[in-house]
Amino acid sequence: MKIMVAVKRVIDYAVKIRVKSDKSGVEMSNVKMSMNPFCEIGVEEALRIREAGAASEVVAVSVGPAQCADTLRTALAMGADRAIHVVSGSLGPVLPLSVAKILKALVEIERPGLLILGKQAIDDDCNQTGQMVAGLLKWPQGTFASKVLLDKEKQVATVEREVDGGLETLSLDLPAVITTDLRLNQPRYATLPNIMKAKSKVIKKVTLEELNVEIKSDLEVVQVTEPPKRKAGVIVSSVDELIDKLKNEARVL
Amino acid sequence: MRRGKSLKCFLAGCHLYQHSACIYPEIPNSASAIFQASRISLIHYPESPLQSYDKFNPLRHVCPMASRGGVLHRPNKESLIATSRIHQRSFGSTTINIQRNPSFSMINSDDINYFRDILDDNTVIQDEDRLSSANIDWMRKYKGSSKLLLLPKDTDEVSKILRYCNSRRLAVVPQGGNTGLVGGSVPVYDEVIVNVGLMNKIISLDKVSGILKCEAGCILQNLDSFLANECYLMPIDLGAKGSCQIGGNVSTNAGGLHFVRYGSLHGNVLGLEVVLADGTVLDMLGSLRKDNTGYDLKHLFIGSEGTLGIITKVSILTPARLSSTNLAFLACEDYSSCQELLLKAKRGLGEVLSAFEFLDTNSMDLVLDKLEGVRNPFPSSLHKFYVLIETTGTDDSYDRAKLETFLVNSMEGGLISDGVIAQDINQASSFWRIREGITEALMKAGAVYKYDLSLPVEKLYDIVVEMQLRLGSSAKVCGYGHLGDGNLHLNISTPNYDDNVFAQIEPFVYEWTAEHRGSISAEHGLGLMKADKIHYSKSTETVRLMASIKKLVDPNGIMNPYKVLPQSIYSP
Asked: What is the mean pLDDT of chain A?
């Protein structure tokens, strides 16, 4: 069985986000970019499934500009077998529905038994792509997975997911879509020997035309603004003053 | 679930930053949703300040004189300012007493009234709790008994305080973040503590030259966050950055992790404003890179550890913050490989090399054992040495390719036995956490005997090996530090303080260092710990000239007494 993992290149989560002065978006130039942390968890899970013998190949895929190859290289350095880079060219941001359509087209070519995605990307926080692609493929979906068990014989994936009330366990018939939550695993580091090996692995470039997917944006970004500035705190001199402020200024009492 | 925590922190916006923004409203508070969380290092104080105190005084026991029998000083209960205890400091096996200098006055109520007159009420502190934390250093090795903590708001107040103290012969200890490791920032007896923490304003940043002017009490990390918005970077970076203040950094000439790239504060500090013991304000706050007019006196104050005056303002040249940083954590099997790797890194990584740090297997063990959430990058095998190589440049893919090529060649050449490269800032932070967490891990392990040595690189690790042979199984000897600068942190850890272990270490470690023409203090300073050890690194003539300068600038000797220079220079 083959596992396909979708990875997204995002601004590193430790980088301080700056809004562009024209409010058209956030500053992306000269900013450290990394793999979306949830995608990293997805790659790790795919590798663990392969190492446990339940899968034979892990294919990492990404949609985006030329630099996405770096993100795919990271997936390869972690241990993915090969990679596919869908070049978005000058299209700008590709929104979840478009990504879902692209992934569907890739799935139809690659025929994986399992498609793993991060539950969301930390840049737009959409949390939509996994669900959409499952819908388009008419595959069962296990989102927010905190534990995945694969039964190779029965072709069933058991997925534990963290829901508000506790844990929910789903049994999915393969092929299926799984999106990863934070506690699924701790991704491995890219070791030097694996980085060396990754250099000889193939990153196949694919265009949208080749996939026969047409992308049009259904959404328009009107404006991006910073959150309001946080005010400095004050030190109150007495409990009475605090209560007074809570009652009359903050109006929480 | 460290990763989980960090991500949650990201998702929630960082509490830390919000917290610091409350305390330091002068620092512009960026509204961005994400705090630059890379390599935040907080000093974790033990829960109870006094609980672990006894085991943390390997070099000096601090106890009331009364307990020795013999001399008994009765505290004068009526007087609110009298020193209630006279301290005896025992240097392990070789007991030396530093006597309180009898020429210093004791504080009286008139003094307090004077300070209340010239300062705001809430900046004249006599509260026991606040004094007790200002009296003790963060390693809890050195404890004074000051009865007064002053928090001046500006240079003028510092000047008034010192002028008065000088006229009254009241000894003064300047204090910043109190993160020093040699007892330089806490009183020895009843010195008045002058903490410049409230002087935390950023005065200006020249956006073209990158020259930053700020007050001495600015916290290093806050300065760096401020500069990050302008794409500049503080040229120093050290584990205590969340607490230490720039004034203290400059007065101790702190080194840190990026020394190999940006060099010493003697090079980066362009100007200072200093208040001398008699209250004179020396305005040397230039912001010129080149200025050859007479003696460059600011250098006297950089690294003089507050013994010549109090630094109140700093003008510092900050390098451009480059967008691409890469970090590799590597394993080496012997020390000679580490050395050769350094040589090759200087040649092969050249302009992008920004840190070259090393730690040995004992240090690694300790960190993994004592610190929560630290992850071993090489879980399957043990290695003798670990090296961190950081590169900083302008083009991420170029820098990365360069680093990878260098590392692959080094691995093929057998210099590196294993290695990992951080794929994102979070991974980089977790690698740095190992290196920066050693001090904290050592504190948690029990008593620690700390030495900060400059040595020729090829000899640098020999002292660790010799020390291991000398001490055998009685102690754990850890060697780590800034290999790129020839700076070894030699730390010896025992579960409890042991006189016999101490006698095995000192004076051997100093003699060995002197024999190899090293320095007994590379970046920590002399403070109280090594004031009488200066002769191991400096000639008699040099020390004599230092003493003359001290007498000239501070004739009454009130500035940070008992520190840096040996007491013997004051005897006639």
From this structure: 92
